[in-house]
Design brief:
Blueprint (H helix, E strand, L loop, with lengths): L8 H23 L5 E5 L5 E6 L12 H13 L8 E6 L3 H10 L3 E6 L24 E3 L4 H15 L6
Parallel strand pairs: 3-4, 4-5
Antiparallel strand pairs: 1-2, 1-3
Length: about 160
């Protein structure tokens, strides 16, 4: 049995997702960005990169939480390949981020809320699961979606002047 399929794997995923949710809160409260947070964890279980949405404050359309976290991980590991790493993100990746994950050779992607508008891990597109790629990524979705989803919904409701749900 691989370490990723042990009974404790779900608990580990939840713990890292909790940290990613904390980063999402930073995006919302510190930068007034869409609350998405991400962490890259290496094969030994150490965090090697983290980030939150920064595209508005950095005027950078590519500065999604996942990209920011992968950039930090690449620097920490001194490698553009993130082999054996798991990326935790509070929202299903978009197509841009999903392709960056394939190119980075991540082992796993674990996400919180599904994105029925632009999700590229199975909701709208299945970029991460496309068999035409020369690299396969294990995908786990819906981890703490009951927290991540309402955080996003309430952020957009507040922007529209509506009360939280």
């Amino acid at each position: 049995m691989s370490p990723l399929s042990t009974p404790n794997a779900a608990g580990i995923d939840r713990a890292w997702m909790t940290r990613a949710l904390t980063l999402a809160e930073r995006a919302m409260h510190e930068d007034d960005e869409i609350p998405v947070g991400a962490i890259v964890v290496d094969a030994t279980g150490s965090a090697v990169g983290e980030g939150w949405n920064r595209n508005i404050v950095e005027h950078d359309p590519s500065a999604h939480a996942e990209i920011v976290a992968m950039r930090c991980a690449g620097v920490a590991l001194a490698n553009h390949r993130l082999v054996g790493c798991t990326l935790y993100v509070t929202l299903e990746p978009c197509a841009m981020c999903a392709m960056a994950m394939v190119h980075a050779r991540l082992a796993r992607v674990v996400f919180g809320a599904f994105d029925p508008k632009t999700g590229a891990a199975g909701s709208v597109f299945d970029v991460l699961g496309d068999p035409r790629h020369n690299h396969r990524i294990e995908v786990v979705g819906g981890v703490l979606a009951d927290v991540a989803g309402p955080m996003l919904t309430n952020y957009f409701r507040a922007k529209r002047g509506l009360p939280p749900r």
